[in-house]
Amino acid sequence: MAEQMSFPPGQSARLHLRHDEELERLLMAELRRHVGRAQAIKAETLGRLVLRDDRHVRLAIKRLIEAHGLPIGSAPTKPPGFYWIDTAADLEEAEKNLRHRALSCLTRLAKLRQSTLADLLGQMHLELK
What we know:
Helix content is 60%, strand content 6%. By secondary structure, it is mainly alpha-helical. The chain folds into two domains: 13-86, Arc Repressor Mutant, subunit A, CATH 1.10.10; 87-129. A two-stranded antiparallel sheet has the order 1-2. Strand 1 (72-75) and strand 2 form a beta hairpin. It is elongated and about 45 Å long.
């Protein structure tokens, strides 16, 4: 079911879209200063820099990656945070983290369905056809 967006009185979706675009622009500029895995910056720190909470930061970074195809990686280990992917090693690290996170989520889903991961993946494969 699609989530209904509500806006404060007097504000429109267009105003929020401008704010989202501005947030994305600010985050992109900041992340370009954090090139490579070793320069990762935490969402909380980014939030302080752009005056937004880390939830909005994470959502905007997700949009930058998914909608605009920007090379932004994330890492849960030291140094944790987001970074601009610059090398093949950075990309490999980002891919490894995403695969791990995806498998973790799918494993939880399989447990909730009282199924195996293999059965779940098979069902998902059929659904994608």
